[in-house]
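Here is the promised in-class demo. Please do not try to memorize the tokens; focus on the logic of going from shape to residues.
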């Protein structure tokens, strides 16, 4: 895939999705994960590579060991790599269609339930390095 491990593509105008990013950052002291908003030029390009409609994204994505994961798989792959959240990997035994159905319910209603902003989440100076804005940062180190 040519994209560094730990990159999370997220909907930057979705309040719920931005909370997810803050949740991951707060529980990722090793800074394994980095983030790119789908609304950025880089995010749109990555979404196109991954087959995600950047105009109406219905999934986040994470790259782990060169593979892209979507929907509930993406969330669980992230969670199980966070300290004290490894237990969440056990949820993979729930059949993917059932997990993704629940994921899709939240994805379809996220703006109505949680809200939408007009601009993408802006990281603090301390967290800016966790957000990918340069295409060179997508590739292998």
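The designed amino acids, position by position:
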């Amino acid at each position: 895939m040519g994209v560094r491990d730990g990159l999370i593509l997220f909907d930057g105008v979705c309040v719920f999705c931005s909370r997810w990013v803050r949740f991951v950052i707060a529980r990722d002291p090793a800074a394994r994960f980095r983030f790119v908003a789908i609304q950025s030029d880089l995010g749109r390009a990555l979404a196109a590579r991954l087959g995600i409609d950047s105009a109406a994204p219905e999934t986040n994505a994470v790259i782990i060991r060169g593979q892209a994961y979507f929907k509930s798989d993406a969330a669980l792959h992230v969670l199980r790599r966070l300290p004290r959240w490894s237990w969440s990997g056990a949820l993979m035994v729930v059949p993917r269609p059932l997990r993704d159905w629940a994921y899709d319910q939240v994805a379809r209603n996220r703006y109505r339930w949680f809200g939408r902003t007009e601009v993408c989440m802006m990281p603090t100076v301390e967290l800016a390095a966790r957000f990918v804005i340069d295409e060179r940062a997508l590739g292998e180190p």
